[in-house]
Amino acid sequence: MTFSHEKLDVYQLALQYVAFAHSVCASLNGARRHARDQLLRSSQSIPLNIAEGNGKVSVADRRRYFEIARGSALEAAATQDVLSVTGALTEDQNRQGKQMLDRIVAMLTKLGGRGYTVREEPFRYGGSMIDFDPDADSERHVAEWGIVCETP
């Protein structure tokens, strides 16, 4: 029996990252145990949220879980940086983990895609575009900053 989330490439890659994180963390202890525990939690959160999100019927619910998984992947990358600057991870280990995380983040960004962008009018800042969080209260931003919501 195969569950639908098991068919997702991002889920399979997330499991590979969990294995990587566990192998890296196996030798960490002492002062690095907090970062080790954080890496283990964030790495496991990625496939767990992918699986839960993929089982949701509502598009908004699916998106929310994929975004949580994406956030966990970014958190894992930052934790790798902490372990790297403390000498717990080699440059090669950090690069290997981040390559997986970069692919995971890209896939989750696509899966959680909103189909719209939020930006300020170009004339506000000399023609430059400034992106905002699409989860933000768009009506308030339109009123306060002249932000435009676009749908494809």
Molecular structure report:
The structure is a single chain. The protein is elongated, with a radius of gyration of 19 Å. With 152 residues, the protein is mainly alpha-helical. The N and C termini lie far apart (38 Å). The protein contains five helices and two strands. It is 62% helix and 5% strand.
Q: What keywords describe this structure?
A:
152 residues; disordered C terminus; two-stranded antiparallel ribbon; 5 helices; single chain; 2 domains
Please describe the topology of this protein.
Layout: H1 9-25, H2 33-54, H3 59-85, H4 91-111, E1 117-120, H5 138-145, E2 147-150
Antiparallel strand pairs: 1-2
Helix pairs in contact: 1-2, 1-4, 2-3, 3-4
> Based on helices, strands and strand pairing, what is the structural class?
mainly alpha
- Summed over residues and divided by their number, the pLDDT gives a mean of 81
Alpha carbon gyration radius? 19 Å
- What's the CATH first level of the largest domain? Mainly Alpha
